[in-house]
Structure to design on (574 residues):
């Protein structure tokens, strides 16, 4: 696939995304700045599009970094406990700080996402049997343990309603003023691109990296920090989007390989295209109502994931 | 010159490498041989800084290897351990280009590209430079990794059992290339070998280890004789000469126990 195809697809899908919804908005409406349609457009539609683009690009890159550093094709923020740890962090902040501020939530969520992922990498280091399927299974179990801890304490503290909101990845509630945190993922993605060569080298193993004079541990930690930053911003604004960080980098890897500097632009754009398609489908099916994006992503994503598992076992090893 | 001085490494209570001192002669192939568990790979790992020694030191040009800056060290000494488990989908050219990482950090200039081209030509990989590594056979893959090390342009090339999983033809090819690297480009090759006959035919110096201790160290001809081999392997190994090469015929030897 050529990069320009992805760029054109992104532009076309962005336009579609801007102009579908419960209220019909025409380009002519936008000429009148004061009209209700124009207001709606800039308060709801544009922020929604930006959120989809940032979350799609961010989660794909986070998945790519994790797959490279863990040297396993099936490790991603959703299969390594990163997002579950982020959720646990938000809950802890709500439990222990009265009148918790947004900033405090962000800090807790980030710290837990980082530590949670570090713990998973440590587990990965200890286990001898590094099968391509076995490793993410451990990650999913680990994530479920974190998640059940969260649910238990949320239940005890009557916060179930709050946490189920983060469980559900959705762009429905994105309006101007509620998604800006996602812009933090832009510098994270830029840093990921600057570090692309280092991640590729680190992805070939510690000894390999040392042979080329790369400080492996530093690169590993920087990668995990970037993953935690991106995951936190997405969980706090959009919620959990499954499969995205898993399948998008894998599809790109099949046609373009694993050289991060080369594949990061493709991975970003494919993530955006995939998420835009899923969101548009979710908004069309039961128009004028909406299906949350995590449902459409899960349905389409799991189908793609199964295809990858069946035809791709050889390549994933 | 690389000097190994009193190097010791323990895993738990067991000394895997025990007070080993060796000097690696520049411009030669030096083979590390010995039975399983002799500490050959551990020794090589310590020389290349992949592993820290408990006591003793390794000197590169009179300076302790630990004191070298990572990037500078990577321009002098390269190590390739069993590479076939690496399953990253890079093209041959991309992999070889990463050999230039210590110089370019991934942004290749014209000189870097020249090294990459030369290395691929040397290993006969130019035709398959755009293929992905996972599409290659074991022998081709091994050649690609060695090409990367050649592009790294280090004086010292350390290889840990590079013939593992290779058939006879590919093994001979790899050894001939290593010989060429030493003879034509003046590199120094240190290699852990399992097959005593490859060590005998291709190396200048042999370092024999047993249970972590140095048992023999010298020119190949001083080591490849029945007396010395009995000491290393506890086997009576007859030697036969073939075209000026000493071949150890160990296949039917009495093994003691």
């Amino acid at each position: 696939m050529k990069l320009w195809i992805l760029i054109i697809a992104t532009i076309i899908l962005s336009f579609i995304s801007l102009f579908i919804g419960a209220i019909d908005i025409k380009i002519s409406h936008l000429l009148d700045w004061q009209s209700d349609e124009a207001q709606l457009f800039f308060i709801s539609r544009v922020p929604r599009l930006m959120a989809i683009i940032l979350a799609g690009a961010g989660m794909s890159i986070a998945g790519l970094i994790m797959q490279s550093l863990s040297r396993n094709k099936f490790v991603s923020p959703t299969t390594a406990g990163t997002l579950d740890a982020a959720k646990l962090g938000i809950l802890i902040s709500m439990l222990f700080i009265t009148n918790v501020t947004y900033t405090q939530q962000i800090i807790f969520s980030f710290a837990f996402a980082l530590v949670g992922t570090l713990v998973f990498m440590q587990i990965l280091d200890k286990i001898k049997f590094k099968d391509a399927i076995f490793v993410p299974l451990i990650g999913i179990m680990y994530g479920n343990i974190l998640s059940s801890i969260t649910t238990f304490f949320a239940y005890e503290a009557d916060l179930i309603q709050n946490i189920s909101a983060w469980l559900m990845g959705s762009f429905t509630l994105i309006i101007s003023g509620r998604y800006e945190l996602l812009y933090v993922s832009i510098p994270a993605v830029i840093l990921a691109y600057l570090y692309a060569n280092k991640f590729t080298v680190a992805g070939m193993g510690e000894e390999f990296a040392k042979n080329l004079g790369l400080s492996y541990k530093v690169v590993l930690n920087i990668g995990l920090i970037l993953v935690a930053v991106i995951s936190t911003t997405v969980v706090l604004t959009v919620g959990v989007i499954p499969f995205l960080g898993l399948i998008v980098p894998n599809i790109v890897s099949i046609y373009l390989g694993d050289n991060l500097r080369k594949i990061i632009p493709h991975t970003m754009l494919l993530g955006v295209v995939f998420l835009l398609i899923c969101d548009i489908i979710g908004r069309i099916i039961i128009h004028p109502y909406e299906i949350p994006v995590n449902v459409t992503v899960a349905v389409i994503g799991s189908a793609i994931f199964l295809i990858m598992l069946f035809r791709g076992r050889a390549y994933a090893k | 010159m690389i000097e190994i001085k009193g190097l010791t490494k323990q895993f738990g209570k067991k000394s895997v490498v025990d007070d080993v001192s060796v000097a690696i002669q520049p411009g030669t192939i030096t083979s590390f041989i010995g039975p399983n568990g002799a500490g050959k790979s551990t020794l090589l790992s310590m020389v290349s800084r992949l592993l820290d020694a408990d006591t003793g030191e390794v000197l590169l040009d009179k300076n302790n290897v630990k004191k070298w800056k990572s990037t500078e060290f990577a321009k002098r000494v390269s190590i390739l351990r069993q590479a076939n488990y690496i399953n990253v989908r890079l093209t041959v050219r991309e992999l070889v280009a990463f050999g230039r990482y210590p110089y370019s950090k991934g942004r290749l200039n014209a000189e870097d590209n020249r090294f990459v081209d030369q290395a691929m030509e040397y290993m006969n990989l130019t035709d398959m430079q755009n293929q992905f590594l996972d599409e290659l056979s074991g022998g081709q893959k091994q050649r690609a990794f060695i090409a990367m090390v050649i592009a790294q342009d280090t004086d010292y090339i350390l290889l840990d059992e590079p013939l593992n999983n290779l058939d006879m033809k590919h093994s001979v090819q790899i050894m001939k290339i290593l010989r060429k690297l030493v003879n034509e480009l003046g590199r120094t090759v240190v290699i852990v070998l399992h097959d005593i006959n490859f060590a005998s035919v291709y190396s200048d110096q042999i370092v024999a280890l047993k249970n972590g201790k140095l048992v023999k160290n010298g020119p190949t001809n001083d080591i490849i004789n029945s007396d010395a081999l009995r000491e290393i392997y506890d086997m009576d190994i007859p030697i036969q000469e073939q075209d000026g090469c000493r071949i150890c015929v160990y296949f039917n030897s009495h093994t003691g126990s």
